[in-house]
Design a protein that fits this description.
This is DUF397 domain-containing protein. Pfam families: DUF397. About 25% of the residues lie in helices and about 25% in strands. It is α+β, with helices and mostly antiparallel strands and about 70 residues long. The chain has a domain at about 25-74. The chain has a four-stranded antiparallel sheet. Strand 3 (about 40-45) and strand 4 form a beta hairpin. The radius of gyration is 13 Å and the shape is globular.
Length: about 70
């Protein structure tokens, strides 16, 4: 996965699980999955900051794990 993806054309979507009070806001771009096979994820409070880039398969596995609540309790 290239860390050099140009994200200026990314169409960002805020997660429906993000806190509406200004905290814990995560955005991702579905458009890159279709064109690059990658899912960029960023903090919506810092839109010009860096983004994590997941492979489409890695992102799918991550979300599936969250849905099944398989992370061990901290």
């Amino acid at each position: 996965m290239s860390a050099d993806l140009d994200l200026t054309a990314a169409q960002w979507v805020r997660s429906t699980y993000s806190d509406g009070s200004g905290g814990q806001c995560v955005e991702f771009s579905r458009t890159f999955a279709q064109t690059h096979g990658a899912i960029p994820v960023r903090d919506s409070k810092n839109p010009h900051g860096s983004a994590l880039i997941f492979s489409a398969q890695g992102w799918s596995s991550f979300i599936s794990t969250l849905i099944r609540d398989e992370f061990p309790a901290a």
